[in-house]
């Protein structure tokens, strides 16, 4: 066998790198909000979700499985409480989770980390809590269809949840609206600007969102129809982002026609184009349009990422090859040592028969033969 002091580090290095790689993959998966696949997907939820949210029928199989995983994570991590005597069932959780997860279907990051609880009322309710909230109606004192609390609660009227999911083209969906607020609140500021990832920039987001918001206010100021967006979006930028999210998922064709820059911005943020759900194939932009929409390709960053990944793979491969080479070399060296031991033994005793070099019977006074030290067996009078 090989020397443990040589072999142990050679085994530990690639094993440690492999474990570190798996740990990073696991933590990235946890950070992304997806559960490890420890069992079959909750397929029994899919018919319930399709019944109440028919737009889901347009998802492809990959998106369907991803949505079910997100729904599983959502239902498992959030608490659901019924109010005014409403008993919350698993089907209710599934319907809410399906609509909330549709927003973040192609987003990275946790599954609404700021949301701790969903409170359900049978119908419209009056807000009973003080503090910052965002409502789905124009007046805080009026009965509400939903509200988003900065402290981690989302309050919904169940009848509005059902109505919003059943009609995918009316431009109103209380779940989309309130969970868009939760995305906005992930940076602890209700300003219509959620956390962004490159190539999106905060300056570009504020410019496009602000211009679209001003256009809606100007349109309403001239007593014109609000068009694809609801009038409530003119309240402030936070409400405008929530209302624009509703229109993006429920009136994408009209929104793209009236607010092309805003629609392209939301496509880049949500990383999906709902126009295909309504029978309109998204246009295939040319290279110039892609560059204008997404910005220049970060070749330097992509090169550095690829370089780091290849370096890790190279280190793993080199460690394995080195270990194999050392083990083979040590085995060859031991063969040479054995031959040398036998030659010296034969020269000392005039015998050239086979000798067990690693161990020599010590019963007759013979000493242990150790190849590394190249010791000779000293005959004390007994035959070897």
Short summary:
By secondary structure, the chain is mostly helical. The chain contains twelve helices and five strands. The chain is elongated.
Notes on the structure:
The chain is mainly alpha-helical and 384 residues long. The protein folds into two domains: 13-296, Collagenase (Catalytic Domain) (3-Layer(aba) Sandwich), CATH 3.40.390; 298-384. It contains twelve helices and five strands. The chain has helices at 4-31, 45-52, 61-77, 90-103, 158-166, 174-184, 202-221, 237-250, 252-258, 260-270, 287-294, 299-349; strands spanning 79-82, 117-121, 133-135, 146-149, 153-157. The protein has a five-stranded mixed sheet with strand order 1-2-5-4-3. It is elongated, with a radius of gyration of 34 Å. The two termini are 25 Å apart.
Write the layout of secondary structure elements.
Blueprint: H1 4-31, H2 45-52, H3 61-77, E1 79-82, H4 90-103, E2 117-121, E3 133-135, E4 146-149, E5 153-157, H5 158-166, H6 174-184, H7 202-221, H8 237-250, H9 252-258, H10 260-270, H11 287-294, H12 299-349
Parallel strand pairs: 1-2, 2-5
Antiparallel strand pairs: 3-4, 4-5
């Amino acid at each position: 066998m090989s020397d443990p002091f040589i072999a142990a580090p050679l085994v530990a290095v690639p094993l440690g790198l492999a474990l570190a790689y798996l740990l990073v993959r696991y933590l990235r998966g946890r950070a992304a909000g997806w559960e490890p696949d420890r069992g079959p997907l909750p397929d029994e939820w899919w018919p319930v979700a399709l019944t109440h949210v028919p737009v889901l029928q347009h998802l492809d199989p990959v998106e369907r499985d991803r949505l079910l995983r997100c729904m599983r994570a959502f239902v498992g991590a959030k608490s659901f409480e019924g109010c005014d005597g409403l008993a919350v069932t698993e089907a209710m959780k599934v319907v809410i989770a399906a609509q909330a997860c549709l927003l973040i279907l192609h987003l990275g990051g946790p599954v609404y980390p700021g949301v701790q609880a969903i409170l359900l009322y049978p119908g419209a309710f009056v807000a009973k809590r003080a503090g910052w909230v965002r409502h789905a109606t124009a007046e805080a004192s009026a009965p509400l269809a939903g509200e988003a609390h900065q402290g981690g609660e989302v309050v919904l009227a169940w009848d509005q949840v059902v109505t919003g999911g059943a009609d995918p083209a009316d431009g109103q969906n209380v779940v989309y609206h309130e969970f868009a607020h939760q995305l906005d609140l992930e940076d602890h500021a209700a300003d219509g600007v959620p956390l962004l990832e490159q190539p999106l920039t905060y300056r570009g987001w504020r410019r496009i969102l602000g211009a679209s918001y001003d256009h809606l206010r100007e349109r309403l100021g001239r007593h014109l129809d609000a068009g694809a967006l609801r009038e409530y979006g003119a309240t402030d930028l936070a409400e405008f982002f929530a209302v624009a999210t509703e229109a993006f998922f429920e009136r994408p064709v009209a929104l793209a026609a009236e607010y092309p820059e805003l629609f392209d911005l939301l496509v880049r943020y949500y990383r999906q184009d709902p126009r295909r759900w309504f029978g309109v194939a998204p246009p295939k932009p040319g290279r110039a349009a892609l560059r204008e929409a997404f910005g220049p390709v970060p070749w330097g960053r992509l090169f550095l990422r690829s370089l780091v990944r290849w370096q890790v793979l190279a280190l793993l491969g080199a460690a394995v090859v080195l270990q194999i080479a050392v083990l083979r070399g040590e085995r060859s060296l031991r063969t040479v040592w054995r031959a040398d031991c036998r030659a010296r033994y034969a020269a000392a005793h005039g015998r050239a028969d086979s000798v067990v070099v690693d161990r020599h019977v010590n019963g007759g006074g013979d000493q242990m033969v150790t190849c590394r030290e190249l010791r000779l067996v000293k005959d004390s009078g007994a035959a070897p």
